[in-house]
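Problem 12. The chain below contains 114 residues. Write out its predicted structure in token notation.
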Amino acid sequence: QVQFVESGGGSVQPGGSLRLTCSASGISFNIRNMGWYRQAPGKQRVVVATITTGGDAVYEPFARGRFTISRDNIQSTVSLQMTNLEPEDTAVYYCNQSPPWPKWGQGVQVTVSS
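Solution.
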């Protein structure tokens, strides 16, 4: 059974940092491209960043230079280090394969507010 479990969300002030981690199970993780996605209130879920099996990363413009995606193929985890957070980054963050599997995890809430 495919499962993605995200952790590490929280509330921070603008300019703060958070590190999100996702544990994947039920998939052959080391042969799957992975991604982080987010859904802001009232908006559709969008891609934040993706990472290939070999570790090559692609970022959406809003994430470039502030976020870093990484993966650990031994632990079957994918992480997202977020720095210089802005109120516009407030959203529920999810991990999934890239392109995404139909089943999503619970996600983690990230709130950026002063």
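Discussion. The CA atoms of residues 51 and 57 lie 4 Å apart. Students who got a different answer should revisit the alignment rule from Section 12.3.
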